[in-house]
Specification:
This protein is of the alpha/beta class. 30% of the residues lie in helices and 20% in strands. It contains 17 helices and 25 strands. The strands form six sheets. Strands 1, 2, 3, 4, 5, 20, 23, 24 and 25 form a nine-stranded mixed β-sheet that branches. The chain has a six-stranded parallel β-sheet with strand order 9-10-11-14-15-19, sandwiched between helices. Strand 10, helix 7 and strand 11 form a beta-alpha-beta unit. The longest helix has 17 residues.
Length: 586
Amino acid sequence: MALYDLIIKGGTLVDGTGAPRKVADICIADGVIQKIGAEVSASHGRKVIDATGKIVAPGVIDPHTHYDAQIHWDPYCANSSWHGATSVVVGNCGFGFMPCKPEDRERYMRMMENTEQVSLSTMRKVLSWDWESFPSWMEHMKRVPKGVNIAAYMPLNSLLIYVMGADEAKKRPATRQERQRMRDLLNEAMDAGAIGFGFSHLANKNSHKDCDGTPMPTDIMSEDDIYNLGEVLRERDQGAIQAFVDMATVSKRHVVEELARISRRPILHNVIMAFDALPDNHLSLLRWLDEMEAKGYEIYSQALAYRFWIEFNPSDFNDWNMVEPFGELINSGDGRARAKKATDPEFRARARKSYDPVAMAGLGGSVESLTLQRANDAKRFAKYEGQTVGRIAEAEGCAGIDVYLDLVAESGALADFKSMAVTSEDPQKISAILKHKRVLPGTSDGGAHLHFLSGGQYPTDNIVQMAREEGLMSLEELHYKLSWLPARVLGFDKRGALLQGYAADLYIYDYEKLGFNTDRQEVLNDVPGNEWRRIIRARGIDSVIVNGEVIFDHNECTNAKPGRVLTVSHPTAQLGGADLPLQALG
């Protein structure tokens, strides 16, 4: 008689806590790990997976995504789940769809389109809008079929607009009555299962721009209004805060420090990454994290530390909208308008004068570093495909910015470019970031920027580069970082590790075969509204299991939808395991 729903036999367990790996069987029933240890008879399982010679690890928790819309048409939140993610977090950077008054629905979708490049036609097609409040959105999400677990911050742009209105939220601080209303709504959301709140605060330096080109409400909101909401979490002794306050060109770390002092809750600071052109950028952040720990603050930084790249054509690429001359080009209109703008002699003169390669360090690198993948209708440049814009400029005897604008003009803004210079690929710099005890891996941005970015592969790349290729980190360290630590910081009880009594969220992979295509992203035409996206598939992952059910089997979808809406645990359990001994971390 079968005692368990699933038995995973003979795998090498890296359980996420930092304990040394071991070969053991895992027995699962009712979505929970019931037993780990000595060999169990296969006859005791309704389903048995032979994991001999494979790594069995806890499912990755992806803390920084924008799957708010995508989960409505893609229950697996690919490509995060393809690379081992079993839980994702939405509501990041202050963006989301709740709470929302009926008259603001179109505005919210347009904001999401402009900031996170999620297609408006897709959102109109997939969002049912059978909610207004945060609690009613949570009930809606419980009804949505999910292959992965999902948790949500209260997005502060939504909260500000709901209480003050979009225009007023950009003009002034909240009144006393409005502050109280926001406190009440945050308490209501936390009661319904919100894991805290998320926001960005970068003034006019953020690439996130509203649909009218102005900064988002949270980027220019009163700091006192932010601290007001931090007091709510302190009073509850519950929840975490996500704060996007750092870029290569601007930093508002003081807001995070004061928020940590007031709230006494964990804060995920965004974002830490390394740049070859700015060698001290990540080191100063690591020193700051040490200083914050010495003050007793629970501040963690969310890393963007893995090898990734962007592929785009200029017709709909708007991630450079806050730096000239690209802002003027982007704001000129659609692809046809941008192509026409690129021929304007006056604009080109301004472009040559304003273009600064150093200012592009945190934005994918200089135009000279871009590789021309396909010239498309810019026929005279076809012979240069596969070469950088810098090399093309040398061959043509002109400046890199002129080559880029010629390609935009002559291709109708449809030339394809690739940039590998988004962040440093130096393994020493990446390991310095990832090994720091106050750093969480991630920033996949899953669900956003579908036409030029795919970041869900970060767990795979961290393992391949840091462990297999460079030997700079152990699997024990990496899976602690990928699963256990984010679960503890975010307050997910009994998740993030392979322990008896914990949720059966895990994945099985072949360590030697693990990887992905590092040459080119795949274009998938599967987005509602006749839209497309770029994706990166995993190699070497045998199974991804959520709440005890296999959702992917050797890269084939099983159509199982066992995902749940995750909420924060009881306050006393929030960080109870975050300081478990971890021999590999020291």
